[in-house]
Amino acid sequence: MSIFRHNSNVRKNKTMIGHRDFILTIAVLLILAAVALTMIDRTDFSPELLPPEANAIYRQAGLPIEDRVNDLLRRMSLREKIGQMALMEKNSVKDSNDVTQYGLGAMLSGGGGKPKENTPEGWLEMVTELENAALQTRLGIPLLYGIDANHGHGNVPGAVIYPHFIGLGAASDPKLVSEIAGATAEEVGATGVNWIFSPTLDMPKDFRWGRTYEAFSDDPLLVENLSSAFITGLQTNRQDGLMILATPKHYLGTGAALWGTSTNKKFKIDQGATPADENALRKEYLPPFASAVNSGALTVMVGLNSWGGEKLAANEYLITDVLKKELGFKGFVVSDWYGVYEIVKNDDYRSAVRAINAGVDMVMLPLEYKPFIRNVNKAVARGEISEERINDAVSRILRVKFAAGLFDQKDAKHDLSVIGSDAHRALARTAVSKSLVLLKNENGLLPLSKNINKILVSGSGADNVGRQCGGWTVEWQGIDGNWLPGSTSILKGIKESVASSTEVVFDASGNFAGETGQAEIGIAVVSEKPYTEGWGDNANPTLDRSDIDAINNLRKKSKRVVVIIVSGRPLIISDLISDWDALVAAWLPGSEGRGVADVIFGDVPFTGKLPLPWPKNISQVPIDSDGKTSDQAAPLFVRGFGLGG
User: Fold this and answer.
1) Which pLDDT value is given to residue 576?
2) pTM above 0.90, yes or no
3) Which of 231, 455, 491, 644 is disulfide-compatible with 606, CB 3.0–4.6 A?
4) Domain count of the chain?
């Protein structure tokens, strides 16, 4: 027994030693794995990667861009290259030191992505801090900072808000669009931002889409002309030698997505499927992008839609073969918000591999950069993404940064006084007046006399600048109310336009019970609530019940009624319009409501034309670019319609 007990103890000791060795082995492996991950994240700090010499080729402003790109690329580690391909939302980077540590190539402010103090000064401080962090990297590669300046520097209170693109499409004035783009460049550049995600080249066939107002028109030729004017106006108005980069979007065919096909369960058409008709893509949707490339666009954003059962961000044929090779696009392709990770559900690694191989050069993550860096590094190590593809992507990104002048920036001066300037407000007011479309005018009611004794005003949009501006204004989904500094509501514009002897009485609901008799004129300014993207998908866009009541109440107290619709799209009004004496489509005019009054009271003539058909009913959509409705009947108003002018 003693011998047995002895052997048993030996076995027990050996077992304990075995367990201890096993635990130690696991611990060592875990430590090595952690070190390996750290090495992946911190490749920039390897001792063999030394700072470049002061006279490195890529630092010499007078040398050809391609020479500078090639020189810089050969100096970069794989980790540094991958960092350039990452586009992060600023709220996801909690410490600006991460911009330095991970060598991030670009940052963005999404809708509402603002500094703690949402002022021009706060914006400049925020952007400058992040840009300076990028310059602290080993190679000092400058940062791209992008925003959605879809109708002016809309994130910043006090900036001028221009009409959304659908209104500019109604104005159909390339020179005006170019001037607006140039003014936007001034205000954006003053806060240090150097990249905007605009213009939108989508051509919506279905007005139920929540992004209809972001497009100029459903007419390819008009979109081509206005988008090219925007790109030229934006990029030629250099701020302190820097180009403010345009981003034509959403490549390709996003406006043709079908109702009910959205991959987002909360939406209906946004992020939906575009019919797999290559002839239609080439005939309608590709020409504006070809024109944009020829106009000098250096970045293009891929849409969130699908084509041929595949997300656009994974479509190598459309991105690489068509855009890059066929159209000769030399800039870089950027994905849309979280768009890459919609390719393969719940598989970020596989999604990134497919998107990059398809030709996406910069990935709008926009949240997680550390996993992205690890995933791409792993994919290269496995041979699933070639180093050649990485080098191509990074070369394109660097080429754009050089072309924009970011490497040669010297002590930039930022004149914040241009934000909200009188000159820009005057330009916006002109744009508003040119964008109004007169749809009905019984007995030549409009323009109105400024000497009318009494005018009654009602409607949700009369005294609400937030509704005038729509989405992408201060907040992603816009604001509701009057708190934009320096702005003018339509009601205020009316009061400032009429004679001092004219009495203007306002009640949003049209409750004028205290008014005796009938006023000569009633003006109802009705509106949509602000919305963006799929949150604006609406199965039946029409007037709100409260606005219909406001019009009816107004009619009881007015001899004649003018209805002004403030909306991001046509609304179904076929059963209502016969009761109105005059009808004006004001779209989303922005911060300068006085521009509406300028036309209503005859200081400026009506010249706007419908940029897309105005449907009679829902059964008419989608509507082809040639104007053919789905029910084969005529729309309420055809594209190009507009009285006056």
Assistant:
1) 98
2) yes
3) 644
4) 1
